[in-house]
Predict the 3D structure of the following.
Amino acid sequence: MPQELTVPSATEIIELADRVINDGYMLTTQEGKLLLEVEPGSEAFVALLAGAARIREHFVGDKVHFCSILNAKAGGCTENCSYCAQASGSSNMDYDKHRWLDDGAIEQAAASAKENGAGALGLVAAWRGVKEGKQLDMVCDSVKELIETDTIRPDVNLGILESQHCADRLKEAGVKVYGHNLETAKSFFDETCSTHDFEERMKTIQYIKQAGMGLCSGGIVGMGETKEQRIEFAEQLRFIDPDMIPINFLNPLEGTGLEDRKTVDPDEALITLAVYRFFLPEKNIMVAGGKEVTFGDRLHEVLGAGINSVMVGNYLTTLGTDPDAWHKMVGDYGMTPHTHEDVAEGPCSACGE
Ligand code: SF4
């Protein structure tokens, strides 16, 4: 790629994809920024998506991992994340609030996630972070119970961890993957939340890794960050080296701090996914929340932008796409679902076990 600041041509993008595949070339920050400027509908745009699909095929194959989440404790969060309906400052009341679900409800959700083809069910809690003591004991008991049923792998997403001991306890209970998003670039984080900071998130990630759990960590595109910050975010993802990277697109829900934002343009969203595949070639990249409102009837196109994982079922406070529709889209695109047998036999795309 030339050094001057021009958006690469289709030929240059094809060559760049070849270098990533054949030479293990790692894109520079500057190259990432220029790729984000590719014109939708141009030959370069087509080459970018095709290159991302080739890189995905080469490094992570054609299987699509499905994942589901359950709002195991909903509402009443003390934190003020501006994109979140469960945040302390949010006036969005249009969802069911409840304490940590009992084992029966969790097992029912696990059975339904399995039926939907999900390889794992993330138990998510609207807390600043799980607290040691009764709360952590309760979560560990739920995880152990669910493992006993042998229905589906329980992952957890319990917010900021206050100590290494907390992470070790979860690992001992059988948690293989902990989900904890960076959310956005470090330089933009303070504009999205003031009740905790980026460093606290990084510290939690350190505890997760030190405990030996797999890390699922990504973020949200479209909160008002610049394109430069989208690449800065990708650089930080390179640094923390997650096993799975969920990319959400902002769904600007009424009553949240970001209710006035527009959804990301679908072409821009495809370009962002494709550039992340170029930038993080060997990673499992999941398209997660906000995809329905962002892509609309073009949802199937995400499969051509280099992703190899999809969140299926409903989100924390909003509905998602019918899982059967995803299975059809994956088949139509010539990819194959990552089955339970794959997860059972391993290595799992998210936890490596
Ligand atoms: S994103 Fe999590 S920590 Fe932030 S307000 Fe929502 S539930 Fe709370």
Remarks:
- The longest strand covers residues 63-73.
- The domain at 57-345 is CATH 3.20.20.70 (TIM Barrel).
